[in-house]
Fold:
Amino acid sequence: MAVKATIATLVAETPSVRRLLLKLDAASGFCFEPGQWVDFQAPGVAAVGGYSICSTPAALARRGEVELCVKASGHPCAAWVHGAARVGDEVSLRVGGAFVLPPDAAARPCLFVAGGIGITALAAMATHLADRRAAAATQQQHHHHQQQAAPPPLLLYSASCPQEFALLPQLLDWQRRGALSLSLYTTRAHGPLPPGAAGVPHVRGRIAAQHLGSALAALRERAGPGGGDVLAFVCGPPAMSDELCAVLAAEGLPPDSVRTERWCMALRRPGHPGAVHVLLAVCLLAAGARRGAGMDFEMQSQTKCIFEELNANVIVVGDYKAANRDNPTLPIYVNVKVTDPSGAAVHENAAQTQGQFAFTTKTAGEYQACFTTHDLETAYHTKLSVDLRTGVAATDWDTIAKKEHLDQLSVEMRKVEGAIREIYAEMLQLQQREQEMRDLNEETNARVAWFSIFSLAVCVASAGFQLVYLKKFFQRKKLL
Structure:
């Protein structure tokens, strides 16, 4: 669901990057995980930009703020941010993306590799990870329980020149606290580093295989034999990401331990489905990729809601589980309420640690599932896992296969057929919305045309009345 935000501050982070501090209403229901991006809609700009969030959910919970860094480019949204944007302007945000920290990230050694503006997502991850580890260490001290902590994450950060290192003061602050180990790389110009970065390792050149090998070896050594394998996160230009992911694989990291952010600008622009979107949907179908949306997040507030835009007659199945993020053995109870677009409850349950809801939508619109804890203190310790499946992904194919004696190929063909029907229904709904917008535009144009004609008639009548009145006035005065 898109929410409104207001630009509170707008500063030059680097010569080519502007940093936006956005204020959101606490009742907007906006939530995200570190590493996710937002679809950014600027006023008067038709195109939609995609920018990673560089702040943390904790900052959103405490101050109702979200920060973005936007690099100058030819994209209309970037041009607006670097040109026409002013403090007080209202923009629209919609969160998305699956480039997030896994649940066990705080207990494992982590390697972050950033190229250029890719630092935004990784800075949010590193900050969130440092906060979680600091909270865990404080809790261990409080309970007099000592457990081997994971080593501080390593961050390899490359930019074209020293002046283009975005978010550097924040990263240097974490390094001074011992929560991060930073290395900087410049790929084009190699002048002195900015003030405050003295002593930070600086390599003149690109991040290469030997740098990754050394970083992995250092992390494994610091973690020790029981510290688990390294988690790697790569965010940067596609060519750089592909090259470094191949190096990490050659260094022995399994695929599920390497996370990367790859995206194409054309695929991050929502709107009417063009040829690129249709081709992407067909490719996803061929790969069997239309599944549900699973997510893990920390509550941070007493009530968290998930919103989903659904058509009519769609099967929806959701599994949820609440846990204490600091002590999984302690039960956490939440109240669950699912409502339809009119606000009527389609599922409601109280004091549950885990459960499931299932229903078939009756009307098209925005459905929401809200999870509420007993109090705010409980919310701060609550981690919620939600697996939401709709349409084909929510169908019990095992039961259907047994009942109709279908083989695996027939089941897969049924899934593809169902997914195609869903896409077709979405296309029809978009077509209907387009028709409604066209009718509204034509009606508005007709009203404006009649108003213009009426205004012209009033002007002509006023002019005629003035001429007649002035003529009689001058005749009475014997001036004519």
Observations:
- The radius of gyration is 28 Å.
- Confidence is low (pLDDT under 50) at residues 264-291.
- The chain is about 35% helix and 30% strand.
- Residues 170 and 338 are 40 Å apart (CA to CA).
